[in-house]
Amino acid sequence: MPLALALLILAVAAKAQSGEALLTDASVRAFVIRQEAAWNAKDARAFFATFTADAKFVAQACDSHGGLTSNGSSTVSQATAQAQRFFAASRFHETGVIDRVIIPPDGHVAQVFGHVSTEIEKAGRPPQKLCAETRQTLVLAKRRILSQGQTETDVRCSR
C-alpha cells in the first residue's frame, strides 16, 4: 500500500510540473462566485457559458416525509429560456454558500456542495424567500473550468 500511495503522489506531482492545469479549492470557489455574480446580474449569457453543452439542470424538493420529489430537469437551452423569463418577471438576489468541495487527487473533477437563499420580488406579490441545497460537478476542459450541471433541492428556509 505505501508503494501505491508513493506512485500516486509522484503521478500528481508530475502532472503539476508538466504545466497541466488542476482544479484547486480556490479555483473552484472563485468559479462558483463568478457564476453567482452572473446570475445576480441577470446575465444569462455569462451564467450559462459556465456550463458544458450537455449540462443537465435538475430541480427537486424535499417532501414532508424526508424523501425527494422531482420537479423536472432541463437542458442548457431549456434552462436558459426559463432563466430569461424569470429575469424579466422578477427582482431578486441570490446568496450562496459553499459547504464542501471534493477534489480527487487527479485534480480534473470537483464536486461542489452548497446551499442558496433567494429573495424574490414580483409585481403584485409579497416578497418571497426560497432556499435550496445545491450540488454540481465541475470539470477541466481545455484548461477551463465548466460545470456539468446543477441539482437544486428545495428545502425549508431556516429562521
Structure described in brief:
By secondary structure, this protein is an alpha+beta fold. It has four helices and six strands.
Would you kindly provide a written description of the structure presented here, covering whatever features stand out?
There is one protein chain. This protein has 159 residues and is an alpha+beta fold. The chain has one domain (20-155): Nuclear Transport Factor 2, Chain: A (Roll). 32% of the residues lie in helices and 44% in strands. Strands 2-1-6-5-4-3 form a 6-stranded mixed sheet, with helices on one face. Strand 5 (128-141) and strand 6 form a beta hairpin.
How far the N terminus sits from the C terminus, by CA atoms, comes to 48 Å
> Over the alpha carbons, how many angstroms does the gyration radius reach?
18 Å
| Inertia-based shape | globular
What is the CATH third-level topology name?
Nuclear Transport Factor 2, Chain: A
Mean pLDDT over the residues: 88
Label the CATH architecture: Roll
Give the total of beta strands: 6
Give the secondary structure arrangement, pairings included:
Blueprint: H1 2-17, H2 25-40, H3 44-48, E1 51-62, E2 68-74, H4 76-89, E3 91-102, E4 109-121, E5 128-141, E6 144-155
Parallel strand pairs: 1-6
Antiparallel strand pairs: 1-2, 3-4, 4-5, 5-6
Q: Main attributes?
A:
159 residues, 6 strands, 44% strand, single chain, 6-stranded mixed sheet, globular, 4 helices, Nuclear Transport Factor 2, Chain: A, alpha+beta, disordered N terminus
